[in-house]
Amino acid sequence: MAPSTTIALPAVPTTAPVTAAVPTSSVAGTFAGERESEWCLRAAELNLLTTAFRQSDAADRDAVRESLATILDRIGRIAAVVPPEIADDLAVSSDAFAMLDAALAQVGYDFAEADLSELDARTAEIGAANEVIRRYNHDVCGLDAGVTGQEVP
Q1: Cα distance from N-terminal residue to C-terminal residue, the chain
Q2: What distance lies between CA 109 and its chain's CA centroid?
Q3: CA–CA gap between residue 72 and residue 88 (Å, rounded)
C-alpha cells in the first residue's frame, strides 16, 4: 500500500493568515455583519469541506475529483450571498479552486503530474484575498480557520 499524501491546495476562505501584502477589496479592521447570516452558515460548511479536503489522500483521484466538485459547487452557492466587502476576495478564491480543478482534470486528478505553476504564480494574491475572508469569517461568523496550511500547491 502506497503511503498517504496530504493534499496541498489553494488557500481558501478558511486558511491561516499569510504574510504577503497584496491589495484586496477590504481594508484592515473589524467587519460588521450578522452571525446567523446565510453567508456564515455556508462559510461554516465550506470550512468543513476544505479542511477535510486538505487532510484527504491525494492519491485517491476519485475522492479528489469529488471533493473539488463539491467545494466548487458550494463556492458557487455561497457567492450568491457574499457580503459586498469581501466579494472581490471570494472571486479570487473561487478562481483558485477552478484553476486547481482544471489543472488536475488535465492529468486525471494526479497531483504528482499536475502543472500548478499558474497557481504558484498567484500565491500572494490568493493568500491575501483568503486572509480577508478568513478575518471576516472570524470577526462576523465566529469561525476559526481550522486549517493551518498557507501553501498553494
Answers
A1: 24
A2: 18
A3: 17
Round to whole Å and give the CA distance between 4 and 75: 27
Q: Which three cell numbers stand for residue 151?
A: 501553501
Which of 91, 94, 6 has the alpha carbon at shortest distance from 53?
Answer: 6
Contacts of 50 (CB under 8 A, 6+ apart): 9, 12, 13, 14, 71, 147
| Grid cell 498517504 in the structure block, residue | 4
Could you state, in order of their start, the residue ranges of all structural domains in the chain? 38-141
What are the tens digits of pLDDT across the range 8-57? Answer: 444 444 333 322 233 333 444 577 777 778 999 999 899 889 888 988 89
Q: Which residues of 33-42 are buried (b: 16+ CB within 10 A; e: fewer)?
A: beeeeebbeb
**DSSP annotation of 6:** B
C-alpha cell of residue 127: 493568500
